[in-house]
Amino acid sequence: VARWEHKTRALSQVFGSPHAACYCLGAVILVLNCVRSHCFTEAMKSQPKLEGWDCHWTYYSGVAISAVGTLFVISSFLALGFTGTFLGDYFGILMEEKVTSFPFSVLDNPMYWGSTAIYLGWSLMHASPAGLLLTAVVAISYTIAVLYEGPFTEEIYRRKQKGVKSK
């Protein structure tokens, strides 16, 4: 959807502005995330637990991993803002420069890996093999997204820099 918007600006035209279109896409992404999290939780609850992992050590490891993931997700959002988080650059809403402060100084794509860590922690807290499998699916999905998104976003900002230097 974001690449389609970048090519056509169709959503920006329908919503009357790139900001309105980006906020609407962001709202859809948030709703879909809630649905995904609900389905993830229901899948874990409906499947058997790993009895050997249903202990305090695994539970508190899961809490710690989820806490780190939450730190990465929240700090990413605070560093990028709403439009930076929800693909604003595809709508032509560009940041002045690439964000390099925490959490981006620690790892690339901290929003994606923080979200994955939250699911991993949640799975450990519930001693859920189904949750671990679904976490792997989330990680694979994010890996694919990064392979497509990363170079495309780099190109958008490369063009911006080239345009700034030639003025």
Please describe the structure with a list of short key phrases separated by commas or semicolons.
about 170 residues; mainly alpha; about 0% strand
Q: Which structural category do the helix and sheet elements fall into?
A: mainly alpha
Low-confidence stretches at least 5 residues in length (pLDDT < 50)? none
Helix content: over 70%
Report the total helices: 6
Strand content: under 5%
Shape: elongated
Termini separation:
31 Å
Mean pLDDT: 93
Computed over alpha carbons, the radius of gyration is: 18 Å
Q: Summarize the biggest pleated sheet.
A: none
**How are helices and strands ordered from N to C?**
HHHHHH
What is the tally of beta strands? 0
Describe it.
By secondary structure, this protein is an all-alpha fold. Helix 3 runs antiparallel to helix 6 and helix 4 packs antiparallel against helix 5. The chain is elongated. It has six helices and no strands.
What can be said about this structure in brief?
75% of the residues lie in helices and 0% in strands.
Summarize the helices and strands and which ones pair or pack.
Elements: H1 2-8, H2 10-15, H3 18-46, H4 56-85, H5 110-125, H6 129-165
Helix pairs in contact: 3-6, 4-5, 5-6
